[in-house]
Amino acid sequence: MMFGCDYGGSGRRPLPLVYTRTEAPSVDVVDLDRVLRHLRLDEADLDETERSLIQGAIATAHEHLDGRAGILGRALLTQTWEAVTDRPTWAVLGARSAAGFMLELPPIQAVTKVEYLSGGAYVEMQSGTWRSVPRPGARVAVLSPSWPAADNDPTAYRLTFRTGYGNAAAVPAPIVSAMLLAIADLYDNRDGKTLANLVENPTIARLLAPYSAIGV
C-alpha cells in the first residue's frame, strides 16, 4: 500500500520521529588533561586504577548530557544523526501552511539528506524539492510543497542531519563547567553514588538549566 500527501488526513497521527546516531564525535568535550587540571592531579602520580576511575567519570558525564538520551536533549560536539517516521505532518509549524518534519536535537548545523522509501528502497529527494527552516531553540523544520508518495512503513521518510556546537572550544562554558563539577563529584564520591544523585548539586543544575532543549 502506498500513500502520498495525505499527511495524516485520514485521522491517524504521524508517528514520532525516531533518532539514531550514525556518527559519534571522535573526541570528548573535556579530555583527561583538562579534568586532571580541574582535579589538581598529576598524571604521573596516577596508577591504572585511578586513571580508569577518572576516564569512567568522564565517559559517564558525557553520556549523561550528550545526545538524544542526554538530560539536555541536545548534541554537544559535531555528530551525525538520522531521524525516521511514517509521514510528514501539517503540525510542524503549528498551522496548515506547510507539511514536513521538526528535528528536535539542537543545535542543528545542517540537514544533509532527505529520503523516502519506495518499493522497499530509499530514494533521495533532489535538492530544491525540500528546504530546512530554522526554528526557535536551534531546531530545524524540514518542509516541502509536495512530498512524494512513500511505502506504508514506520520508517518511510528518513532525514540525515549534522548537529552539535562544533569542536570542544565551541561548547558553552556553563555546560563545560557543569561537566567538570559532575566528574569531580563522581571521582570524589566513588563509593556508589550515581550521577543522577550528583546532578542534584544546585550549582550544576543552575549551569545546565538554560540549555535544556525545547520539546524534549
Protein described:
By secondary structure, this protein is α+β, with helices and mostly antiparallel strands. It has two domains: 2-23 and 75-163, no CATH class; 32-65 and 172-211, no CATH class. 25% of the residues lie in helices and 25% in strands. The strands form three sheets. A five-stranded antiparallel β-sheet has the order 2-3-10-5-6, with no helix packed on it. It has a three-stranded antiparallel β-sheet with strand order 4-8-7, with no helix packed on it. A two-stranded antiparallel sheet has the order 1-9. Helix 2 (48-65) packs across helix 3 (173-188) and helix 3 (173-188) packs antiparallel against helix 5 (202-208). The chain is elongated. The mean pLDDT is 88.
Topology:
Blueprint: E1 2-3, E2 18-23, H1 32-39, H2 48-65, E3 79-85, E4 99-103, E5 108-118, E6 121-124, E7 131-135, E8 139-144, E9 150-151, E10 157-163, H3 173-188, H4 195-198, H5 202-208
Antiparallel strand pairs: 1-9, 2-3, 3-10, 4-8, 5-6, 5-10, 7-8
Helix pairs in contact: 2-3, 3-5
Low-confidence stretches: none
* Main beta-sheet annotation: 5 strands, antiparallel
Helix content: 10-25%
What's the rounded overall pLDDT mean?
Answer: 88
Shape summary: elongated
